[in-house]
Design brief:
The chain is of the alpha/beta class. The chain contains nine helices and eight strands. Strand 3, helix 3 and strand 4 form a beta-alpha-beta unit. The radius of gyration is 17 Å and the shape is globular.
Length: 273
């Protein structure tokens, strides 16, 4: 990791601010990569007018910003069977891709969604099939000339979620079989499964890995702490990434901007890129 410009930061670190104010703060803090998380105060990105989006794009171009988007989590379920929930999800995701293509985003982060029983193999299999079909349809919305790709993210082991274990995400990528569908690996989420899972699961996703979400925790809650403030064993994780020549995106996703800055400093000292 040569310098701070090697990283992106999630607007999650500034959820207390309106999206426009959060982006302005990140500009002033000299971040060159920004991932807009479309939740809470920042969910209104999808409602911005084309004039507002044109202004954002121009500001980004003037500052050399690389954009990505984290699609909404609330109210979206790619794993849903046919019906109103799935239709609403697809409309939301198409709007995300429309904006992402316009901003020339590197990727759009998506959660696989929910099933009735996250531990039942039959439920997971149906969910994987539904997500795969949805992503196949969504890839047709992407411009062949653009660089934006779709990425699915591993999630915490909450009730009903799909994708808490990376096996489901690997199966989705395998089934879709497209270079436009890859995985965002959240190290903090993986650490909530069990001790050692963050390293083990990373080995599984490497063939499809496009981006990282980086934060720390104590293995109990998704705290989004600065790297080094929790119990995630980052040294072997960084070594594995280096040994495999990972050249994707490093997105710091902490609850506070100061924690993001501290994370970058510590990763730079560790020689993580």
């Amino acid at each position: 990791m040569r310098d701070k410009s090697s990283f992106a930061v999630s607007t999650y670190a500034l959820f207390d601010l309106a999206l426009r104010d959060a982006i302005t703060e990140l500009f002033h803090s000299d971040w060159k990569g920004i991932e807009i998380m479309c939740e809470e105060n920042h969910a209104d990105l999808l409602d911005w007018s084309w004039e507002q989006l044109k202004e954002l794009k121009q500001q980004g171009c003037e500052r050399g910003i690389t954009w990505s988007i984290h699609a909404p989590i609330s109210g979206c379920n790619l794993a849903a069977d046919a019906g109103s929930s799935r239709d609403q999800t697809m409309d939301t995701m198409k709007r995300c891709l429309e904006i992402a293509s316009f901003l020339d985003c590197t990727h759009v982060v998506m959660h696989a969604g929910e099933v009735e029983d996250r531990l039942a193999e039959s439920e997971r299999a149906r969910g994987v099939e539904n997500v795969s079909q949805a992503l196949q349809m969504l890839t047709s919305e992407l411009s062949a000339e653009g660089r934006t790709i779709l990425t699915v993210e591993n999630v915490p082991p909450y009730p009903k979620v799909l994708g808490w274990n990376v096996e489901d995400l690997v199966r989705i990528c395998h089934d879709v079989n497209s270079a436009q569908v890859r995985i965002v690996y959240d190290v903090g989420h993986a650490h909530l499964i069990r001790a050692g899972y963050a390293f083990d699961a990373l080995q599984e996703v490497l063939p499809y890995l496009s981006a990282l979400h980086l934060s720390d925790n104590y293995g109990k809650l998704d705290d989004h702490l600065a790297i080094g403030d929790g119990t995630i064993p980052f040294a072997p994780i960084l070594s594995l990434l280096a040994d495999n020549g990972f050249a994707g995106h490093w997105v710091v996703e902490t609850k506070q901007l100061g924690c993001a800055e501290a994370s970058v400093e510590r990763l730079l000292r560790a020689g993580g890129q």
